[in-house]
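Handout for the seminar on molecular recognition.
Each group receives one record of this type.
Step one: identify the two inputs.
Step two: read the structure output and locate the region that could contact zinc ion.
Step three: write two sentences on what you found, then compare them with the reference statements printed after the record.
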Amino acid sequence: MLFANIDYLNNSFEVVRGYVGTEGALITYVGASTPENPERFGELYNGRGKLLIPGMYNTHAHMPMTLLRGYAEGLTLQDWLFNKIFPFEDKIDDEKAYPATLLAIAEMLRFGVVGVTDMYFFSEARIRAIAESGIKANLCDGIMVFDEETTYEQTHNLKANERLVREHHDTLDGRLKIDFNIHSEYISNPQVVRAVGEHAAALGVQTHVHISETTREHEDCKQRRGGLTPTQYFESLDFFRMPCTAAHCVWTEPADWEIFRERNVSVSCNPASNMKLASGFAPVAEMLDAGVNVTIGTDGAASNNSHNILKDLYLLALLSKGASGDATAVKPQQALAVATINGARSQGRSDCGTIEVGKRADLVALDICVPWMQPIHNLANNLVYSAQGTDVVLTIVDGAVLYRDGNYLTIDLERAISDTKRFSAEIAASLSS
Ligand SMILES: [Zn+2]
């Protein structure tokens, strides 16, 4: 495809006008004027009234939780998790997780997300949905350990992780990567944390974990682990041998950020989820200043309740100012890096995340001929502060059009919705009877 005369976000996160051409899975032309032999790009896309940006990354999600969207609201975190979420999740299986994952992916593509980092169970169902839909994903199979005695060998995860890596890691032309999971400091134990870190290093895969989501988690860990924060506790067990995505990090401290920077740990900030569950505000500006690779995630649909990444990005940019009292905190260019290149980097995708020749053709076009995007003094500012997720009109992954002008090219949306609704209602009914 050749995007002609279009405003696009360059690799300095400034908007310039020009031409962007893709051939196969790659961007092969970026320039101010029409390229030679323009027919080699195939379709000519009229860029008038559109903005082209690199695809965005949702770096912390639990996709099958679309089944729980709107199911339990207005409860304390403990009550919500133990009395509503866990009993509902007990009833999910692969058959139910599959359409729910497709629904989550449809929603993400609709909002310009090209890659997701997903932590959950039912990996076969999720992989099927990822393979069919065309999205990029780093997927980990959840591990939950509630005592100090259980070893990694005693969980089903050791074998499951081995098999997932053998059969699925770096497959689908690199679209799918397997990560290893530790749920959190409080749903694991030291020997499992150490063993999973070793296993990840042995098989060359990344890791994904929740860190310091609530003040209680952070302070309880310090009490239990001789004053170590969750981050320091993981570091003491040599868990961060491979690049890691750490979700939330709301209560992390400067010493933790040092570890993140040195050990290649990316932070996934989840502003909507953190506010909804009254967990607090992550120190985004401070972590960026400390050189941490900050990214953005929506978390699951039960605690957000959407996968509209631009909405979370708006919150991230504003909260950083409101919570710090510094109106200059987190500039639009920084926020756009958080949503794109930083997300790609967190997934170990050095060939993604910017509009440059040689990079993967992961591209998103937005309609800017809408009242809330006009007038334009600085389009990057409008993108962060004014754009709506629904302004996205085109989502391309590895050169393939997956969503365009209301149509999904790889997902039967009606079916994903009706199956998810049916399974969700079945589970809710079985719990209320
Ligand atoms: Zn989470």
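Reference statements: Residues 311 and 389 are 7 Å apart (CA to CA). The longest strand covers residues 15-23.
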